From TrEMBL:
Protein name per UniProt: HipA domain-containing protein
Family membership: Belongs to the HipA Ser/Thr kinase family.
Lineage: Bacteria, Bacillati, Actinomycetota, Coriobacteriia, Eggerthellales
A Pfam family assignment: Couple_hipA
Domain of life: Bacteria
The HipA-like C-terminal domain, residue ranges: 149-390
Gene3D superfamilies: 1.10.1070.20
Length: 430
């Protein structure tokens, strides 16, 4: 069994490496020429956890990064049943889903050629829309298979493309295209299952609230014709001439640290300070660690403020530059006011000494600043700005009535936490 890995590099495909048998197991090998060129040009490997090297990487070393590219939850379970393979056999999934993933990589199985997957786009047919309206999870599973998509995360999501001259907020369904072969997508379309459509309004409102609070976020638009659907513009795709798109590489913090998926939450190791883990990772990767640690501390304050207790390590990422020589923090993404969903209000990891939203205190936020290695004075100033901007948001700014209602609920739910944030930001705080 051999599985080749390519990257989209300046609009052309370049062989990165391959999975092949070695030492009675399947190992990952970087291509020798790729390593030599990368070292000459000062490029990074596909992950902080997989630096350029001529030797093979064993499964325990490469699994966290590559497994982290696959869907999770129901979609993965449905695909495993569809292909009749174990859910943990991620290489078998890449044989089926290797054309369009998060980041810049594409996978080609033994016996196939990259040229076999010619890039093109297809119209979005009414039957596809009907399937998404009727049973989102089933429709997403089918489209993931048909389009050879590998989109990480537990939400039901697909990848579509929109011409560069059309804003998703103004797009009609007939404007959208389905990427076929190795054609890149421009948007991730998330679809809530039937009866839980308000989850889409929740995320849409949270993303807009974040933007109004001064955070960089991807553009998000509702897809009105599909209840419970939102389109998120991909920040790992950049436009080039004549409407073309080039993939940028990225990796989330789990992948960068070489951690398996189950460690994206602190449950398995409650004694470990995940805030310190984040700070250490930024120190190892970032070209401006002081600035990036402060930005991540600001994001932790905002996650707490809106009640996004699902802020696990896969919801933070590094984005690679087009030349693969620089890495920066990816925009803020995947925001939800969890208390309004009925799911757990225990943060993915502790801020200070507490994880439960209702138990976090100004002292915990001060401890978080210390663990992150940022100035307490500076973070208090940033907390004051976030709280002030948050308090000035008017739900009436949202056009759709369902989103107005959701925004009002989010703002009201956050009031106790905003009070904690203001107390933390007070000059008289201990």
């Amino acid at each position: 069994m051999r599985l080749e890995v390519y990257r989209d590099f300046h609009g052309a495909w370049e062989l990165v490496g391959a999975f092949a048998p070695a030492r009675d197991e399947v190992c990952f090998f970087y291509d020798v020429g790729y390593v030599q060129r990368g070292e000459e040009r000062g490029e990074w490997g596909v992950s902080e956890s997989l630096p350029l090297d001529f030797g093979p990487y064993e499964p325990r070393e490469y699994a966290p990064f590559f497994h982290g590219l696959l869907p999770e939850g129901t979609v993965l379970a449905n695909l495993a049943e569809r292909y009749q393979v174990p859910r943990n056999d991620f290489l078998a999934f890449f044989e089926k889903l290797g054309c369009e993933s998060i980041g810049a990589l594409t996978f080609v199985a033994e016996g196939a050629k990259l040229a076999d997957f010619k890039p093109s786009y297809a119209l979005l047919e009414s039957s596809t829309i009907d399937r998404m309206r009727e049973d989102a999870e089933r429709a997403v599973t089918e489209m993931t298979d048909e389009l050879r998509l590998s989109l990480s995360g537990a939400q039901s999501k697909v990848a579509w493309c929109l011409p560069a001259e059309i804003d998703a907020r103004d797009a009609a369904l007939c404007d959208w295209r389905l990427p076929l072969g190795t054609a890149p997508s421009s948007h991730i379309v998330k679809v809530a299952r039937k009866g839980r459509e308000e989850l889409a309004y929740n995320e849409f409102a949270c993303m807009e609230i974040a933007r109004q609070c001064g955070f960089v976020t991807p553009d998000v638009a509702l897809v009105p014709e599909i209840p419970g659907a939102i389109a998120v513009k991909r920040y790992d795709r950049v436009s080039i001439g004549e409407g073309g798109l080039v993939r940028l590489h990225q990796e989330d913090f789990c992948q960068a640290r070489g951690l398996p998926l189950y460690l994206k939450y602190a449950d398995a190791h409650p004694e470990v300070s995940y805030v310190r883990v984040i700070a250490e990772l930024v120190g190892a990767v970032s070209e401006n660690p002081v600035q990036d640690r402060l930005e991540l501390a600001r994001r932790l304050l905002f996650h707490y403020l809106i009640g996004n207790s699902d802020n696990h390590l896969k919801n933070y990422a590094f984005l690679y530059s087009a030349d693969w020589r620089h890495r920066t923090l990816a925009p803020l993404y995947d925001l939800t006011c969890i208390p309004l969903t009925g799911y757990s209000t225990k943060m993915a990891f502790a801020l200070g000494s507490h994880r439960e939203l209702s138990e976090i205190t100004p002292g915990d936020l001060a401890r978080m600043a210390q663990d992150m290695g940022v100035s307490l004075t500076v973070l208090r100033r940033e907390a004051r700005r976030i709280a002030e901007r948050f308090g000035a948001i008017a739900p009436a700014l949202f056009e759709m009535s369902e989103v107005q209602t959701m925004a009002r609920r989010i703002l009201e739910n956050a009031e106790p936490r905003r009070a904690v944030l203001e107390s933390f930001a007070s000059p008289n705080a201990a």
